[in-house]
Amino acid sequence: MSTPETVAGDALDRILTLELARVTERAAVAAARLRGRGDEKAADQAAVDAMRRELNRLPIDGTVVIGEGERDEAPMLYIGERVGTEQGPAVDIALDPLEGTTICAKNLPNSLAVIALAPKGGLLNAPDSYMEKIAIGPGYPAGLVDLDASPSENVTALAKAKGVPVSEITACVLDRPRHAKIIEDLRSAGVSIRLIGDGDVAGVIHTTDPDETGIDIYMGIGGAPEGVLAAAALRCIGGQMQGRLVITRDEQVERAHRMGITDIKRKYTMEEMATGDVLFAATGVTDGNFLQGVRFGRADITTHTVVMRSTTGTVRYIKARHTQLDKFHLD
Question: Cα–Cα distance between 237 and 231 in angstroms, integer?
Answer without folding.
Answer: 10
